[in-house]
Amino acid sequence: WFPGGETSYQTLFDLQSLSHSYSVIASDINDKIMFFMARFVFNDRSCMFYSETLPVEYMGGKPMCMKQYSQMLSSCRIPGLEKDSLVFHGKSSNPPKHITVVHNSQFFVLDVYNSDGTPLTVDQLNVQLERICNSSPEINAEPVGILTTLDRDSWSKAYISLIKDKINKDSLSTIERSICTVCLDGPIPQASDEMYNTYAGLQIMHGGGSQWNSANRWFDKTLQLIIGEEGAQGFNMSHSAADGTVFMVLADYVIASMKKPEKILSPVVPLPKPQKLHFNITPDIKKYIEEAKQSMDIIAQNLDLRVMVFSHYGKKVLKDHKISPDAFIQMAIQLAYYRMYQRCCPSYEAASLRTFRDGRVAAIYSTTSASAAFVKAFDDPKKKNTEKVDLLEKAMKVHRWNTGMAISGQEVDGHLIGLRMQAVEEEISMPDVFTDISFHKFLDCRLSTSQVRNNRFYLVMFRFNQPGSNHM
Question: Which keywords does this chain's UniProt record carry (predicted)?
Answer without folding.
Answer: Acyltransferase, Transferase
